[in-house]
Write a structure and sequence with these properties.
The chain is built from 8 helices and 6 strands, in the order ααααααββββββαα. By secondary structure, the protein is an alpha+beta fold. The protein has 2 domains: 5-83; 88-229, Jelly Rolls. Strands 1, 2, 3, 4, 5 and 6 form a 6-stranded antiparallel beta sheet that branches. A hairpin with a 2-residue loop joins β3 and β4 (149-154). α2 (11-26) packs antiparallel against α3 (32-54) and α7 crosses α8. It is elongated.
């Protein structure tokens, strides 16, 4: 193909452009599975372009390798998702706070922490001190205190420590188990490393944190209003 403006917008040129458009779009995808699908589409179009117009066996070979590698990776993800198993409380966690995350990544995250049954009065975070663990409350109740006053109550489905666990800043409040609770907890350093290695997990957690924060603000405003009315 000639290096000219006319050839750039010929049928073959447009096919070549399509390949690169898909490749660029793949870089915009947040989910790795979708990214790989775009890369496969790009490579297949590029193979067609190189066979029909460029007659380039080297390019065809490497585009075929790119397709093969991404197909293998998608198959690995598929079988990891099929093999991932969850208890009822784990599945409830995934469905409520990890929406859109692959089953394999949900399992990977859960495996980094452990499930605990906490008695009433157990201290989870302390105001002004670094948060040691991210906690997800599966059942029971946790009171959030600031300056010695109760400002919120966390019900099942809430995160605890999510505001500062990622950056190591001091906790904004003290969290105390109000009644026997069942919760999952993961050490802060372990979580930060996992999020660094698996960006999809970090993005999903941040969406869960944002939704949970909105719910907490509504609950906190209700408690303040009730206290003022008494």
């Amino acid at each position: 193909m000639e290096l000219s403006l006319e050839s750039a917008f010929s049928t073959g040129g447009l096919v070549g452009h399509a390949s690169y458009v898909l490749l660029v779009l793949s870089m915009m995808m947040r989910r790795i599975t979708v990214l790989r699908l775009f890369v496969i589409g790009s490579a297949l179009i590029a193979m067609f372009y190189q066979v029909v117009w460029l007659k380039d066996p080297v390019g065809v070979f490497w585009e075929a390798m790119l397709v093969l590698v991404n197909v293998v990776q998608l198959l690995i993800v598929y079988f990891e998702n099929r093999l991932a198993q969850f208890s009822a409380e784990e599945m409830a966690f995934c469905e409520k706070r990890l929406v859109g995350l692959d089953r394999a990544d949900c399992r990977r995250l859960l495996n980094k922490g452990l499930w605990v049954t906490g008695e009433a009065g157990a201290l989870l975070t302390c105001e002004g001190e670094a948060v040691s663990h991210l906690i997800y409350l599966a059942s029971g109740e946790v009171e959030i205190q600031s300056g010695g006053k109760t400002v919120a109550k966390c019900s099942p489905g809430a995160f605890i420590g999510e505001l500062t666990v990622m950056d190591g800043e001091p906790a904004t409040g003290t969290s105390i188990v109000g009644q026997e609770a069942r919760y999952w907890m993961v050490e802060a350093g372990v979580l930060r490393k996992l999020v660094h290695d698996r960006p999809d997990i970090g993005q999903t957690l941040q969406r869960g944190f944002t939704l949970n924060l909105k719910e907490k603000l509504v609950q906190s405003n209700r408690i303040i209003t009730e206290a003022a009315a008494q």
